[in-house]
């Protein structure tokens, strides 16, 4: 674990511990110090500030726990417009930073094949971190996924899209993002 990741961990220890508890195979390891925990939380950054949208003012918490070549990621969103209840939004880890008003800055999805130099990459929920969520009547959303890779560090983002993710990984316009750096 890097120093910065450790500092973040102390502020969100409860979340991180609950994430670890969801990974019994990982938690049972005798060498817990090898786990990498990445957390991010805060108000979403608006990628289309000129228009009002259901995610305006929403917040999110992202937790990713990695070890032994796999990663479990969770996304919790709150403060979504309740008129969006029942709607599913696509969400993914993207390679680039989360910049207000600039959806393109987030770049493409983080893809483990691309990171390994494999061309063409496979595009699915095992090579990318997909976190689509459906809005509850209370304006919250939750998603989790486990993938067989550990993303490389960087200034990255979780991007939330207008549509659910289709089998090719497309999910329509980019509405909002959460910065995730480690
Ligand atoms: Cu995306």
From TrEMBL:
Keyword Signal in annotation: yes
Keyword Heme belongs to the record: no
Residues in the signal sequence: 1-27
Single GO term (MF): metal ion binding
GO terms under biological process: superoxide metabolic process
Pfam families referenced in this protein's UniProt entry, alphabetically: Sod_Cu
InterPro entries hit by this protein: SOD-like_Cu/Zn_dom_sf, SOD_Cu_Zn_dom
UniProt KW keywords: Signal
Top-level taxon of the source organism: Bacteria
Family: Belongs to the Cu-Zn superoxide dismutase family.
Record protein name field: Cu/Zn superoxide dismutase
